[in-house]
């Protein structure tokens, strides 16, 4: 059994990717199940084998405690901790090889609060991975790209699990833009120049420059350990590559290495 958690910023395409990737896996003959961990979602494009909305409803919590939309999701995920053992039992009795787990878009849950990592750790099988979904429309600006990569890094720190960074929605950007985003990952100089141009940092702004240089170094280090996989949850482009990388984690455990 392999649990794969889809995490990422709001609207980056986690739910759509879970749906398309599960169809892809099924077509290839794999046994796959889906778990929805988003207590606030209205519409799901897939049929969830387990749906947390059957256990806790963000909407009901919002009404009962007069909470706003984000606070009610945070409260719902916090309250799922109480049901973590029950959920774990349900997931483990699904018996599928691939368990795809869709998570809510509120990154605070995973980047800052204790409940996200706690829940994911309780629900993980012996083999598990995080797919961090980045929106390529947002990542096409140098500062958007840097923010996405730093969030990915923050998730990696919090979970300490094999993590795959996925650049989703590539059907919405042209080939040249895609190439540029991918080059930012591998060549710190390119990213540094793009950032300098975007924020018009001059050589006199020493602190800003030093900070920007450090950030580009960090991103190049992330790029060295985990390549960004371009996909489209809409067209299915890149899903074979996503599978290949995930499968290596599955068979290789934590000592995965997919840098060619
Ligand atoms: N063109 C295009 N649109 C996409 C792709 N993936 C997702 N979308 C669209 O992006 C929007 C958000 O997609 P979701 O799958 O709901 O994103 P999410 O990350 O699950 O959103 P939250 O759970 O609300 O954080 C929807 O309108 C999707 O149809 C993609 O690869 N290409
Ligand atoms: Mg979603």
Could you explain how this protein is built, in words?
The protein is of the alpha/beta class and 260 residues long. The chain has one domain (2-250): Rossmann fold (3-Layer(aba) Sandwich). Helices cover 53% and strands 14% of the residues. The protein has 12 helices and 7 strands. It has helices at residues 14-27, 58-65, 69-80, 84-92, 107-111, 115-123, 136-139, 142-159, 175-186, 188-199, 206-225, 239-252; strands at 2-8, 32-36, 50-51, 98-102, 127-135, 163-168, 229-230. A 7-stranded parallel beta sheet has the order 3-2-4-1-5-6-7, with helices on both faces. Helix 9 packs across helix 10. The longest helix has 20 residues, at 206-225. The protein is globular and about 55 Å long. The protein starts with a strand and ends in an 8-residue tail after the last helix. Magnesium ion binds at residues 14-15, 38, 41, 102, 105.
Give the topology.
Elements: E1 2-8, H1 14-27, E2 32-36, E3 50-51, H2 58-65, H3 69-80, H4 84-92, E4 98-102, H5 107-111, H6 115-123, E5 127-135, H7 136-139, H8 142-159, E6 163-168, H9 175-186, H10 188-199, H11 206-225, E7 229-230, H12 239-252
Parallel strand pairs: 1-4, 1-5, 2-3, 2-4, 5-6, 6-7
Helix pairs in contact: 2-3, 8-11, 9-10, 10-11
The site of magnesium ion (MG) has 6 residues, from helix 1.
């Amino acid at each position: 059994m392999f649990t794969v958690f889809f995490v990422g910023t709001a609207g980056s395409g986690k739910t759509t990717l879970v749906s398309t990737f599960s169809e892809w896996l099924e077509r290839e003959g794999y046994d796959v199940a889906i778990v929805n961990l988003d207590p606030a979602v209205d519409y799901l494009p897939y049929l969830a084998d387990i749906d947390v909305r059957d256990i806790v409803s963000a909407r009901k919590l919002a009404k009962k405690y007069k909470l706003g939309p984000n606070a009610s999701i945070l409260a719902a995920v916090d309250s799922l901790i109480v049901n973590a053992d029950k959920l774990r039992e349900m997931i483990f009795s699904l018996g599928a090889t691939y368990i795809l787990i869709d998570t809510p878009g509120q990154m605070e849950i995973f980047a800052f609060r204790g409940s996200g990592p706690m829940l994911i750790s309780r629900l993980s099988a012996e083999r598990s991975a995080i797919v961090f979904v980045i929106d390529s429309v947002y990542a096409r600006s140098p500062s958007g790209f840097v923010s996405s990569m730093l969030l990915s890094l923050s998730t990696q720190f919090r979970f300490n699990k094999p993590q795959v960074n996925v650049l989703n929605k590539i059907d919405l950007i042209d080939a040249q833009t895609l190439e540029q985003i991918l080059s930012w990952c591998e060549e710190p100089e390119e990213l540094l120049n793009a950032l300098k141009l975007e924020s018009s940092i001059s050589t006199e702004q020493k602190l800003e420059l030093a900070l920007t240089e450090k950030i580009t170094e960090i991103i190049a280090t992330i790029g060295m350990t985990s390549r960004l996989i371009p996909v489209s949850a809409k067209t299915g482009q890149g899903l074979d590559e996503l599978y290949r990388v995930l499968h290596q984690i599955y068979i290789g455990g934590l000592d995965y290495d997919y840098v060619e």
